[in-house]
Amino acid sequence: MERIGIVNSGAALTLPPISPTRGEIGSFAVSVEMTSDIAARDALLDRTMGPNWRRKASEKLRRGRVPAEGLAFVARGLKGDIVGTVRLWGVTVEGLHGSALLLGPLAVDPMLKNAGIGSALMRHAIQEAESRGHGAILLVGDAPYYERFGFSAEKTGDLAMPGPYEPRRFLALELLPGTLDGAHGVLRPAGRRMRRDMLVAAA
């Protein structure tokens, strides 16, 4: 049985083999998202999160913006199909010491939920964000899952999302210690705005 190889920018990560009860799934590669991937990515999100994912509080910080430079990734199957996605977006807040990112959505094809693709995407996204000098990553998600990557609600008590959310699911990971010390208030978008032609394509 093949092992899952996660390859990007010369770095490689090998995950445990997939259970044979799930079939011969083969190899996957994590790479930077391309414009041609967006339609397939959105279709994947529709399948995994339902059609209302665009209405989540996190989307208010992403709408009309583009992901942070070099921090949008997809996982591809052997035929180049999109089987996983994660993006990071620039955000800011009062009292922030450095730059912060909002992670999400993280999604994996339902047929491959236990193949380790989500974990590989998370590890790669965190490593790339750190290598680019970002100070912190925030997200809204299940603590038991994201704690394995170092996320917690320890430093989000004075922070808020711009819309309905569950505070216990609002988590953060500091890449540079002290980035969130004293940070407070509602998160605001800080990323680049989409060009007009990109907005039309995304409508």
Task: Explain this structure.
- This protein has helices at 38-49, 57-60, 117-131, 143-146, 196-202, and strands spanning 5-8, 11-14, 29-32, 72-76, 82-94, 100-103, 107-108, 136-140, 159-160, 170-174, 184-189.
- Strands 3, 4, 5, 6, 7, 8, 9, 10 and 11 form a nine-stranded mixed beta sheet that branches. A two-stranded antiparallel ribbon has the order 1-2.
- The protein is globular and about 45 Å long.
- It contains five helices and eleven strands, in the order βββααββββαβαβββα.
- The chain has one domain: Aminopeptidase (3-Layer(aba) Sandwich), CATH 3.40.630.
- It has 203 residues and is of the alpha+beta class.
- A hairpin with a 5-residue loop joins β4 (72-76) and β5.
Write the layout of secondary structure elements.
Blueprint: E1 5-8, E2 11-14, E3 29-32, H1 38-49, H2 57-60, E4 72-76, E5 82-94, E6 100-103, E7 107-108, H3 117-131, E8 136-140, H4 143-146, E9 159-160, E10 170-174, E11 184-189, H5 196-202
Parallel strand pairs: 6-8, 9-11
Antiparallel strand pairs: 1-2, 3-4, 4-5, 5-6, 5-7, 5-11, 8-10
